[in-house]
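Worked example 3 (structure in, sequence out).
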């Protein structure tokens, strides 16, 4: 469960990375281990980045995300719709990043449960302020780190399809495929389904 994870700022170098996520899932399904995947991604520039440093920065996050998926979820990423793949990626981000999971659970879920489809800058600011009050680690982050995390959170919401419009802050309910929802519930991860506003 997420509580074992400490708050971290690793998302500053990661974001949604859906394309990269799919590449790594595909290699994982072929039976490659993490170190082999690392070698292939770097040798063949599978993420198609112009700067190698960007690859070495984002790869550990992507490997962690793919690592928390079971075989069923991995095959769904490649075989089901792009929407389903994005939801699984969002789930993997929540599963590997406590700060983002709690944000989804405490801010987004609450808004969707009360049919409040407006996401404002102040929601994000209040969330980070309250986390800094609860956790010395978060309180010690630079303003630059916090601002970068806020940008990444917004980007993830947008790319996952929860944030319909960055300018107006209009939120959107995700339509989670029944089969996927059942699978999350069967593996004991209903908390993540709820955090997505289901």
């Amino acid at each position: 469960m997420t509580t074992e994870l400490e708050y971290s700022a690793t998302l500053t170098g990661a974001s949604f990375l859906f394309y990269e996520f799919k590449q790594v899932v595909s290699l994982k399904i072929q039976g490659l281990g993490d170190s082999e995947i690392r070698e292939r991604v770097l040798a063949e520039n599978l993420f198609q980045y112009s700067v190698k440093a960007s690859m070495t920065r984002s790869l550990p996050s992507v490997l962690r995300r793919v690592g928390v998926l079971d075989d069923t979820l991995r095959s769904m990423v490649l075989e089901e719709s792009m929407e389903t793949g994005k939801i699984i990626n969002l789930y993997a981000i929540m599963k590997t990043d406590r700060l983002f999971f709690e944000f989804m659970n405490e801010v987004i879920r609450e808004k969707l449960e009360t049919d409040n489809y407006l996401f404002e800058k102040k929601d994000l600011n209040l969330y980070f302020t309250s986390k800094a009050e609860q956790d010395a680690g978060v309180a010690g982050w630079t303003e630059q780190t916090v601002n970068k995390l806020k940008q990444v959170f917004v980007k993830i919401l947008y790319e996952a399809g929860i944030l319909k419009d960055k300018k107006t802050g209009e939120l959107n309910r995700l339509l989670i495929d029944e089969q996927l929802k059942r699978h999350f519930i069967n593996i004991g991860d209903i908390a993540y389904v709820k955090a997505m506003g289901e």
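Notes: Residues 73 and 88 are 7 Å apart (CA to CA). The chain has one domain: 10-195.
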